[in-house]
Amino acid sequence: MKTDRSSQKSPILLLVLFLAILAGTAQALTRTEVEKNLLCYGCPGEPLNIDRCSRGDQMRAEIDRRLARGQDLETILAFFVSRFGEEILTVPPRRGFNLVAWAAPFVMLLIGLVTATILVRRWKGAGRSGKAAQGHGKTIPDPALRRRVEEELQQLEDEQ
Amino acid sequence: MNMVTLGNLSQAAAFAAALLAMLLLLLGLARNDLRSIEAGRRALAAVALFTTMAAFALSRLFLTDNFQVEYVASYSDRALPLFYKATSFWAGQKGSLLFWAWVLSLYIALVVRNTRNETRRRNTPYIYLVLASIVAFFLLLLNTVSSPFTLLPFTPPDGQGLNPMLQNPGMIFHPPTLFLGYIGFTIPFAYAVAAMISGRLDPDWLRKTRRWNILSWIFLTIGIILGGQWAYVELGWGGFWAWDPVENASFIPWLVSTAFIHTAIIQERRNIMRVWNMVLIVLTFLTCIFGTYLVRSGVLQSVHDFGATGLGGFFLVFLVVTGIGSLILIAESYSQLRTDHSLESLLSRESTFLFNNVILLAIAFSTLFGTIFPLISEMVTGKKLTVGEPFFNQVNTPLFLLLLLLTGLCPLIGWRRASIDNLKKNFLLPASLALAGGLVLFVLGVRTFYPLAAFSLAVFVSATILLEFAAGARARKRLTGESLLLALPRVLWRLRRRYGGYVVHFGMVLMVIGITGSTAFKQEKEATLRQGQAMTIGDYQLRYTGFRSFQDRNRTVYAATLGVTRNGRPAGEMTTERRYYINAEQPTTEVSLRISAREDLYLTMPMIGRNNEITLRAAVNPLLVWGWVGGGLMVLGGIMTIIPSRRQKRRTT
């Protein structure tokens, strides 16, 4: 039994390990990747990867020049920030008040997960104590009868 | 009769009828007078008649080129093809508002008809009252600040025309389907509020509104997909979703309503999570209105430029009033809504649904928070900033993967209670397949985490769904002795409510494959070509072979032809265009697409230089077509779940 269990666990463990090793492997930087991080300086609010105006073209040409020189995303973005200020970025830099934006979703997720876990545990407890409190009367002593009830419940669920 | 007069009068009559309905219903409720309530019911039905007349008037004005009407002059011109003239109805805000009021009143008329024998019930008058108030709000706006029948002081010789970008079938049906979704959630919302006011808190309201919920969800899904499709084939930037505030405004209610549809199933089955479902339907409705507020107020910069339209304030007030009102109602009925929850096991379908809710809402929250963060940041730090695509991708991708994992786990875990051994038995095959799939991809050279995780999970979820299908077919075979081939479609059809849900999930899996393939493995290249020159991208070689220009209805078209070869073999021709529309300042690029199961070849021509030298932008988007197929399956699965069974039909007739 024991060996059986561990062999069933192993694929999942392997999967997790295998995926963890791969995390963070980088791909070559494309112009679109850079564009997504910048706004067109001529069109307020329009990301450069969507924009098609001539001022956007100037920015694209600059990106191409810098990519050809082998610069990485940070360096290219730093150049545009030095020219136009941080307003040119589509993503708020991760510092100061902006950290709130980055952290809030995960904090909420954590709160949600913890709440859901507590709720489920409490419901489970209620289910058990409820059953105990109800005492005999409602339990089904006959295993054949119990099986039939289970089967019919299953059938009912299948029909829905 | 003059159509402008007809329109104005009908709009005013519709508003008057809605107010009258509210008055009669309130009177009826106060005096406990059924006749008054019945009269209110009829007045409410009359709203649909008047809005239909107003809608007819506006359509006629478009079709007869009446440019003295400011709205017609702004969104149509003589050269516009008839189809687009008819659909310019909802091209701008004022017509959209009339469309909204019209559809809402038609929906209401349907509810009024279906409940004609239920006016004696305690909650029915309240349903009418809530619906009358909401439609009255829209009619108030139409009659006071945003009438599509406003006249210009003069008659211009021609209209300004419809933005060429909007002259695309996808775009024509994108706004109205989204509206149909948004508007549809009004009905369950009204039922929920009525249940709370009247104290009839049994799951009756949920059962009665199940189809409305799912239908609205289907429309919202179609609307979102059409928007993506339009962006992809029309805008020419090569993507389909940019996490723009207006896109997010449609995605947030979609997420919340998806959560609601799941927990509504639990309430129907177990009569638990009653408070939670109230909260979710209220949130769904509020996020729909909030989306409308975002779109119409101009508080955020968006690629969807609707401009500041002066309607934002009204929607904000409506939002705040509805929000606070609902909150008070939920708080007041909390003690009655509360049920003694009991679960037989931690490991049950009920608990996975709860966690699925948490993740869906976490995605909704991060999307909402990211969308309004520029406003928050400006209030706190005084600095203007943008929160764009990379933020949402980075934050939401892990959440989506978690959701996908749960989608796969869910069918493995039975209702009420699942035994660990059973789960393990069910788990082994899908997990091994997922692992094998991941390994194969790794060997084939996929070395980044997210795509590998997404594809492996896609295999996992597909396997669990297929196992579920197989189990159903086998059970039917045992029961009826039919062959598996016959048993499968029959069981799918007979239990379509359940299997429809799985079809939606499978659609989602395909969508994940399409999105992952086309974003993680996208190839792009740009080149300037003279006639005869060629560029290569991926397996393709594109040779610029011909150029021509011609006049076509309301536009001048410049078209470049490219001979395509794939791995050295000829693969036909593609034509990409730049179009200069009459009445439009900017030319548009016409995307040329070659779609196959493996990948899309996507061409645009951002520039034409001297001597017909062209700048060609080419992209190869692997597997994208599966995303659209998946979207179609999601809609199909949704439809499956709401087709009534014969038994139900008999009950209703």
Key structural traits:
heterodimer; A: 160 residues; mainly alpha; Helicase, Ruva Protein, domain 3; 6 helices; B: alpha+beta; Four Helix Bundle (Hemerythrin (Met), subunit A); 4 domains; 5-stranded antiparallel β-sheet; 20 helices
Give the helix/strand layout.
The complex is a heterodimer of chains A (160) and B (653).
Chain A: H1 2-22, H2 31-36, H3 54-68, H4 73-84, H5 99-134, H6 143-159
Chain B: H1 3-31, H2 34-63, H3 70-75, H4 82-87, H5 93-114, H6 124-144, H7 169-184, H8 186-198, H9 204-235, H10 245-270, H11 274-297, H12 312-337, H13 349-381, H14 389-409, H15 420-443, H16 449-480, H17 484-494, H18 496-520, E1 523-529, E2 534-537, E3 540-552, E4 555-566, E5 569-581, E6 588-590, E7 592-595, E8 599-608, E9 614-622, H19 624-642, H20 646-652
Antiparallel strand pairs in B: 1-9, 2-3, 3-4, 4-5, 5-6, 7-8, 8-9
Helix pairs in contact in B: 1-2, 1-6, 2-5, 5-6, 5-7, 6-8, 7-9, 8-9, 8-11, 9-10, 9-19, 10-11, 10-13, 11-12, 13-14, 14-16, 15-16, 16-17, 16-18, 17-18, 18-19
* Distinct helical segment count of chain B: 20
Helical proportion of chain A, percent range = 55-70%
**How many helical stretches of chain A?**
6
Order of helices and strands of chain B: HHHHHHHHHHHHHHHHHHEEEEEEEEEHH
Euclidean distance between termini CA atoms of chain A:
36 Å
Averaged pLDDT of chain A: 75
Low-confidence stretches of chain B: 649-653
The coarse overall form of chain B would be globular
**CATH architecture descriptor of the largest domain in chain A:** Orthogonal Bundle
Rg estimate of chain A, integer Å: 29 Å
Number of strands of chain A: 0
* Relative strand content of chain B: 5-15%
Quaternary structure annotation: heterodimer
Total number of strands of chain B: 9
The domain count of chain B comes to: 4
Report helical residue fraction of chain B. 55-70%
The CATH class name of the largest domain in chain A reads: Mainly Alpha
Structural class given helices, strands, pairing of chain A?
mainly alpha
Topology-level CATH name of the largest domain in chain A: Helicase, Ruva Protein, domain 3
- How would you state the average pLDDT of chain B, rounded? 90
Measured on Cα atoms, how large is the radius of gyration of chain B?
27 Å
